[in-house]
Input
Amino acid sequence: QVQLVESGGGLVQPGGSLRLSCAASGFTLAYYAIAWYRQAPGKDREAISCISSSSERVYYRDSVRGRFAISRDHAKNTVDLQMNNLKPEDTALYYCAAEQGYTCGGYVRKTAYDYWGQGTQVAVSS
Output
């Protein structure tokens, strides 16, 4: 079965860290750009990071730049999102999406991807 599955979410205190993982089954992530999105309660879904299919291009939303880092683990067939110095405003459902051969150009406005995951919940609270 071809699917994306996110993991690694949880409850963390402000200033803490989490590492989210986007795992693929049925296909190889190395040929796909991966974008991470999040949706907070009552807010629109927003794109926060993207790594191109070649891994040559990496983008971050301003609100997470310097705190979040996206990376590939080819051995595990995953794309991870390391999240440091988490803030209460980072609380959201986090999704990953995959598009073959995509360069991440215009990823902030992109809505159609080949595959979407179901999301993993992140809660930042004291």
